[in-house]
Specification:
- By secondary structure, the chain is mostly beta strands.
- The protein is 13% helix and 37% strand.
- It folds into three domains: 84 residues, conserved putative lor/sdh protein from methanococcus maripaludis s2 fold, CATH 2.40.420; 91 residues, Efflux pump adaptor protein, beta barrel domain (Elongation Factor Tu (Ef-tu), domain 3, Beta Barrel), CATH 2.40.30.170; 141 residues, no CATH class.
- The strands form four sheets. Strands 1, 3, 12, 13, 14, 15, 16, 17, 18, 19, 20 and 21 form a twelve-stranded antiparallel sheet that branches. Strands 4-11-9-6 form a four-stranded antiparallel sheet, with no helix packed on it. It has a four-stranded antiparallel sheet with strand order 8-7-5-10.
- The two termini are 55 Å apart.
C-alpha cells in the first residue's frame, strides 16, 4: 500500500505492517538492432554489418588512361588551286589518295587568258626589247598566272606561246579532291575501302574556274594523336604533360610526346574532350586511322579518397552508404578525380564518418534509393 517503501530483502512495511511484495526488476536494454530499424523502408535504411572505412587523406600520383586515333595534322594539309580559268587537257593523277611529291606534274591546262598573256609578252620582246619595265611586267604577270619560270624562258627562246601549261604540286603527300573530306570532322574516321581508291571527280576536258580549289594534299609524315579525355579526368590533364602513346596494332611502336592542345569543348554526340599530341610520323610510319592507347602522366593530387567500390553512381548523383546504428543509410557525396581504384570525395562526408567499404552489397535492384543529403 506504500509503494515508496523499497527493501532489498523480504520484510514488513514499517508504516502498516503488511508483508513486502516481491517486485520484478526493470528490463535491461539490449544492444543491437531495434524493431523500428527493421521496419524502415529498404530504400532508406539497410540492415547490415559490412566492414566500414573512413576518408583517407593521401597524396596520390595520378596517371590518366585514354583512347584515341592517329590522324592527319591539319596544319600540314595543302590545297592546290587553279590560278586561271581553263580546260583540263591532261590529268596525271587518277584516284583518291594517290601519292604525289612536291614539284610533281599533276595536270595540264589550256587557258585563253594565259595564252593572251604569253602573246603579249612575246610581242613586247619582239617589238620593244629595250623596254625592261614592260618586259618585267609581262613576265611577272605570267608568273602570277601560274606559269613556271622555265616555261617562260622556253617560249621566249622559241618565240611561240604554249597552248597548255602544266600545274605542279607544291606539297608531298596523298591527294584528294578538294572538299572530299569537308563533311567529315576527322578525315580518317570510318572510311569505306572503295571511297579511298575511287576515281577523282575531275576528268580530262572539264573546265576549271579561276581560284577554284582542285586538290587537297594530306601529309602523313606530320600527324597527331587525338585522345579522348572523359569529364572526370579533365581536371588532371593540361597542356605540356608527358604522354606515352601505344598503337593497338603494334605496341612496340610506342612513342612519347606531350599534350600540345586541349579542345575547349565537347564534340557533338560525345562525352569526351579531345587532346592533341603532335608527332613526327616519318620514321614510325604509323598508319592514319590507327587506334591507340595513351598513358598521360599527371601531377600528384592531395585529397580525400575512398575506394571506388564504396561509391555508387545513380546517374546524376553519387552515393555512399553511411554507417548508422544497426545498419547503413544512403548518403549523397560530391566526387572528383578517379585514379585507378580510388575516387576523390570533395563534399558530403566528414573525416569521422564511416561508410560501407563495398556499397554494391547494399544495393537492391528492385528499390529506388532514397538519398539523404
Amino acid at each position: 500500500m506504500h509503494p515508496e517503501i523499497i527493501s532489498d530483502k523480504p520484510g514488513k512495511c514499517p508504516k502498516c505492517g503488511m508483508d513486502l511484495v516481491l517486485k520484478d526488476a526493470p528490463a535491461q536494454k539490449e544492444d543491437g538492432i531495434k524493431l523500428d530499424d527493421l521496419l524502415q523502408p529498404t530504400n532508406n535504411y539497410v540492415v547490415s554489418q559490412l566492414p566500414v572505412i573512413r576518408l583517407s587523406k593521401e597524396n596520390i600520383p595520378t596517371t590518366v588512361d585514354a583512347l584515341g586515333i592517329v590522324d592527319y595534322d591539319t596544319r600540314q594539309i595543302g590545297t592546290i588551286s587553279s590560278r586561271i580559268a581553263g580546260r583540263i587537257e591532261k590529268l596525271y593523277v587518277r584516284y583518291k589518295f594517290q601519292k604525289v611529291s612536291k614539284g610533281q606534274r599533276i595536270l595540264d591546262i589550256y587557258s585563253p587568258e594565259l595564252l593572251t598573256a604569253q602573246q603579249n609578252h612575246l610581242f613586247v620582246l619582239k617589238n620593244d626589247r629595250s623596254n625592261a619595265m614592260m618586259i618585267n611586267a609581262s613576265r611577272q604577270k605570267l608568273l602570277l598566272l601560274g606559269m613556271p619560270a622555265s616555261q617562260i624562258q622556253s617560249i621566249s627562246r622559241k618565240g611561240k606561246p604554249d597552248l597548255s601549261v602544266p600545274v605542279f604540286s607544291n606539297y608531298s603527300g596523298y591527294i584528294q579532291s578538294a572538299g572530299g573530306m569537308a563533311n567529315q570532322s576527322q578525315p580518317t574516321e570510318v572510311m569505306q575501302a572503295n571511297s579511298v581508291t575511287a576515281e577523282l571527280p575531275l576528268k580530262e576536258g572539264m573546265y576549271l574556274q579561276k581560284g577554284e580549289n582542285i586538290f587537297t594534299v594530306y601529309n602523313p609524315n606530320r600527324s597527331w594523336a587525338l585522345l579522348n579525355i572523359f569529364a572526370e579526368d579533365i581536371a588532371l590533364v593540361s597542356k605540356g604533360q608527358s604522354v606515352t602513346v601505344i598503337p593497338q596494332n603494334d605496341p612496340s611502336s610506342r612513342f612519347k610526346g606531350t599534350i600540345d592542345f586541349i579542345e575547349p569543348f565537347f564534340r557533338p554526340d560525345s562525352k569526351t574532350v579531345t587532346a592533341r599530341v603532335y608527332f613526327d610520323n616519318s620514321v614510325a610510319k604509323i598508319p592514319i586511322g590507327t587506334q591507340v592507347n595513351a598513358e598521360i602522366s599527371s601531377h600528384s593530387k592531395s585529397a580525400d579518397w575512398l575506394p571506388k567500390t564504396a561509391v555508387v553512381s545513380l546517374g546524376i548523383d553519387k552515393i555512399v552508404f553511411k554507417k548508422a546504428p544497426g545498419g547503413f543509410t544512403a548518403h549523397k557525396v560530391g566526387t572528383g578525380a578517379i585514379v585507378k581504384d580510388k575516387i576523390e570525395i570533395v563534399s558530403g562526408l566528414k573525416p569521422e564518418d564511416e561508410v560501407a567499404e563495398n556499397a554494391q552489397y547494399l544495393m537492391d535492384s528492385e528499390s529506388l534509393i532514397k538519398v539523404n543529403k
